[in-house]
Protein 1
Amino acid sequence: MRNILGKAGIIDLPRVLDARGNLSFIEELNHIPFRIERCYWIYDVPGGEKRGGHSFYKNEELIIALSGSFDVVLDNGYRREIISLNRSFYGLFVPKLFWREIENFSTNSLAFILSSSKYDPDDYIRDYEIFKNLINK
Ligand code: TYD
């Protein structure tokens, strides 16, 4: 993994290059450091919209641009970095307690997210100040 802001980072996925078309894959606990409890995807995003301004208490995730491109604004409570995702053979690992927003979606982009836990509204931190205070405790 190429680390970003500490424990987050870009994970390069296996690529099986083939004249018939390329193939990539992910195995839980092998290519990513968590068990996959859930997958979801974000699509048909109108121009200029943003998604996902929040952090999680426990959930960890891998965000992949399966198609098109978008930017992930990642924030560890001290510093912020913008990571552009635009290929399907790598993903951004976002550990728990990282703030993240997704923006600048290209037309027809597809954000695919692997998550370490099932959907739980109580795991969300949606207030940036609460997130900051938690980090700085
Ligand atoms: P949310 O994670 O808040 O999206 P974003 O942060 O990008 O705005 O999810 C939006 C809605 O979708 C929310 O009302 C709950 C629902 N949802 C599920 O039911 N299951 C899921 O796995 C996810 C990610 C969202």
Protein 2
Amino acid sequence: MTRIVAANKDSISEAAAMLRDGKIVVLPTETVYGLGANALDSEAVAKIFEAKNRPNFNPLIVHVMDKDSASALVEMNEEAHKIADTFWPGALTLILPRKENTGVSDLVTAGLSTLAVRVPSHKVMREVIKQAGVPIAAPSANNSGEPSATTPAHAAQSLGDGVSYVLAAGACDVGLESTVLDLSGDIPIILRPGVVTLEDIKNYLENVEIDASTKDKPKSPGQLLKHYAPNIPVRLNAVDVKEGEALLAFGSIKFMGLKSGGPVKDMPTSAFRNLSENADLNEAAKNLFMMLRDLDKPEHKAIAVMNIPDEEIGVAMNERLARAAQK
Ligand code: TXA
Ligand code: MG
């Protein structure tokens, strides 16, 4: 049985105690829900891989309170300091050379010489990290390959019996996973786009690039081709809705029709979601994984998704959707 418990003083202390005790707990963050464990405890970290069915070559992000705690675990260069001072706490993960003898389990890094670190801004998550008193390894709280969970119920549903405790704090604000920025190589590379965009980072690091190879030879082991995928097919850039399809809309549906005749507004509500009626990209990002899961029902032949502008957080949404649509 999975307990879903609203975050309050007592449940936060209970979650922190469970983490200290080597257990895994689902935790809220501003991006997506995370499945947390004490990063110093290999047995605890192994439970994450088991609960998620995650391949053990895919390394985890370690969550800490502040830049100082991060620099105890990784070699911070000048660029890292600049970026950390600007974007932490927040939805940005840094890949940096890991330090020796920090106690971080080798399972966390999957044998790599680098470590992913993030300082989250979510109040509940920060209080849990503080009370646990250890760095927290946490991937997204979903079964490997499924869309990330952005609500407590979706995390519980996706992980099933693999997890016993969900610390619940409503829907996540951002709705997409953190931007992953690799500062361990010659030039800064964005391995995973997110709400902190290429343009945002360019204001501080002129020579940053988006990893163009993510699609064929991912540098981040987690950026496997088929990822973030619902159980039914996803059809992108839809301008109409085919027989049996569900529709994930973005903006106005006034001019959109059903292939079988009639307007989209006549669709059953169970087959229709709108990411943002006002075409607001941030609202759409917050809703993306939640609505994909809502529409992921065997009675639908596919999910038709309307075009989303490739700008701001839309870049990250389109990257996730392209993976979801991979056959
Ligand atoms: O917003 C987020 O980042 C959420 C919340 C819970 O913090 N976490 C998250 O973790 O999305 P996960 O494990 O689902 O995605 C982490 C990504 C994976 O693609 C993984 O391969 C990559 O980061 N990664 C982790 N360590 C890495 C490393 N040392 N080098 C390259 N990529 C790494
Ligand atoms: Mg994930």
